[in-house]
Specification:
heterodimer; A: mainly beta; seven-stranded mixed sheet; 0% helix; globular; B: mainly beta; four-stranded antiparallel sheet; 11 strands; 50% strand
């Protein structure tokens, strides 16, 4: 199975900050990477797929990049509604696997 | 509007069984691969099982293989997960999730239900 490692596990940031979360795969995944946002008590929500393709309805302050084994999720200007846990997920090979999550908290 | 509504969760003793259901609406259910993803309390996400649109290919996580059975009824727009020989480590919120499209994107989960909690405890 492909292991996905996110860093950091948590971070504190202020409204308006630029935030970057990193996801590393244990082998190359050819941009087959999705990012999800999850708020407490709620289901995950798809933000991006194909490493950089924004899901319909997701604000443009979210962006993704990367290649090979290393990928990033960037929030260009953190908004109050963005405080949540973020997960990366590879779908290059079965089984699909998730990172352990990055919790974005209010500073 | 796409909706996925899970039901069937609850408290069950170790070794017991439970059947989860997911009622789908707002899209052509028979055209999409469907999945179960779970999340143990305070933990991350774990893919459990998937079934393709035509019912002809099924896949399971190693952690549930031989104990869980996924199925679907395209006439009823419903997805199921039969869980047998339950263990404490199966305690989690179970989400029904739609696969985004065909091919590799079938394992991108674009819509999720609200989840149903399964607790395995004596």
């Amino acid at each position: 199975d492909i292991q996905m490692t996110q860093s950091p596990s948590s971070l504190s940031a202020s409204v308006g900050d630029r935030v970057t979360i990193t996801c590393r795969a244990s082998q190359g995944i050819r941009n087959s990477l999705a990012w999800y946002q999850q708020k407490p008590g709620k289901a995950p929500k798809l933000l991006l797929y194909g490493a950089s393709r924004l899901e319909s309805g997701v604000p443009s302050r979210f962006s993704g990049s990367g290649s090979g084994t290393d990928y990033t999720l960037t929030i260009s200007s953190l908004q109050p509604e963005d405080f949540a846990t973020y997960y990366c997920q590879q779908y290059y090979s079965s089984p699909p696997t998730f990172g352990q999550g990055t919790k974005v908290e209010i500073k | 509007e796409v909706q996925l509504v899970e039901s069937g969760g609850g408290l069950v003793k170790p070794g017991g069984s439970l059947r989860l259901s997911c009622a789908a609406s707002g899209f052509t259910f028979s055209s999409y691969n469907m999945n179960w993803v779970r999340q143990a309390p305070g933990k991350g996400l774990e893919w459990v099982s998937s079934i393709i649109s035509s019912n002809t290919y099924i896949n399971y996580a190693d952690s549930v293989k031989g104990r869980f059975t996924i199925s679907r009824d395209n006439a009823k727009n419903s997805l199921y997960l039969q869980m047998n020989s339950l263990r404490a480590e199966d305690t989690a919120v179970y989400y029904c999730a739609r696969g985004m499209g065909l091919g590799p994107r079938s394992n991108v989960f674009d819509y999720w239900g609200q989840g149903t909690l399964v607790t395995v405890s004596s």
